[in-house]
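Render 2-amino-4-hydroxy-6-hydroxymethyldihydropteridine diphosphokinase in 3D.
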Amino acid sequence: MIEPQSRLHQAWIGLGSNIGDRQDYLLSALKLLHQRQGVQVVCTSSIYETAPVGYLDQSAFLNMAAQLTTNLDPEHLLRTMLEVERELGRTREIRWGPRTIDLDLIMYDNMQVEYESEHLILPHPRMLERAFVLLPLAECLKQAGHPDMRQIEQHLDHLDMTEGIEKWKTFSWPDELGHTES
C-alpha cells in the first residue's frame, strides 16, 4: 500500500527464473512485491523463455518485466527486491548462474534518471545489451505510453534477436489467481 501524500515514482524491473516452477516464482515475486509497503505492481509484460547468458550450463529462463509505482527511493526499493528474492529461496553461488528468482531494477522514472551507489547503478548498466531485458521492458513501456519507448525500440533494432528468446505466454496483471492466457 502506498501513502497518498508520498511522492510517487515509476520503477521498471526485470524478473527471471530458471529453477523449479519458473512461472510460479515470477508470479510469487510480483505478488510479494505488490504486498510490500510503498510498492504497487502496475503492469507486466508477457513471459518470455530465453537461453542463459554468461553461464551457459543451466536451464532456460523465463523472463518478464514489470512497472511499479513506489514512494521508495532506489536503494530502499532494491533492498525490498532483495528481501523478496531471499523469501523465494534465491542463493548466489555462481555469477549469472541458476536461480529461483532474479529481480533487477532496470530504470527509475526514466532513462535520464541516473543513480549510482556501491550497490546500484541506474539505468541498469547492461540493459541495452540484452534482448531478454529490452523486449519485455518495451512491452511495459508501450502499455504505459512511456517517452523512452522509442529509444528502447531503436536499441532492440540493433540487437541480435537470435540469442534464444521467444514469447512463452501472454500475461496480464493484475490477475490475483495467476491465470495466464496462451
